[in-house]
Amino acid sequence: MTRSAEHAKGSTTPEGTGDEVEVRIRGLMMDPVTNMPMIVLKDLTGDGVLPIWVGIFEANAIALEIEKSATPRPMTHDLLRNVLRAFDATVTRVVINDLKDDTFFAVIWLDRDGDVMTMDSRPSDALALAMRADCPIYVSRTVMDNARMNQKGRDVNSDELRRWLEGLGDDDMGRYKM
Fold first, then answer.
1. Of 17, 35, 86, 110, which one has the greatest count of Cβ atoms within 10 A?
2. How far is CA 178 from CA 59, 64, 124, 130, in A?
3. For the BFN domain, which residue ranges apply (predicted)?
């Protein structure tokens, strides 16, 4: 955990800067090519999309929250939210702030009585917690731009995948099935 004043160079402030893009979870679906679950993030101010491939367990945690399905016992992200509440800490935002070697990184911003802290996180965990905490989700503009470039360099189908994701309507975002 890091205090905001000590946060690494190049990351964002709790108030945000023009270097971030606010996104929402557009959906969770299976990648038609790899058959792996992916979260589709949609830029709120434009038509950009960012797919992030996640593991099956993380996808299930997000799917449960998307569908507002109750579980008999708290799932890991529910437990984390409950622990934070017990310590009077609030998740104020999550930021997907880095992309290295095709791996995304995220930071969870917490506030406890005015004391702002950050926690390093996998994006899937940060997103699952953000949904439970009902807080905004951001992506660094650099990450958004680099992800587009990385997708273009992968193979011929990556441009098609990007166009397909950008053109998805509400009815196209099928429910995630295990």
1. 110
2. 9, 11, 17, 22
3. 20-151
Can you read off the two tokens belonging to residue 138?
Answer: 């951001």
Q: Is residue 174 part of a domain?
A: no
Q: Which residue range is the domain that position 140 belongs to?
A: 2-168
What pLDDT is recorded for position 153?
46
* pLDDT mean by block of 10 residues, the chain; 178 residues: 44 61 93 89 89 92 90 92 96 97 95 96 96 96 82 50 60 49
> Where does 8-138 have alpha helices with state H?
56-66, 76-86, 123-133
44, HSE (Cβ side, Cα atoms, 13 Å): 10
Cα gap 99→19, rounded to integer Å: 15
Task: Based on DSSP, count helices (H) and strands (E) in the chain, helices before strands.
Answer: 5, 8
Q: What's the domain count of the chain?
A: 1
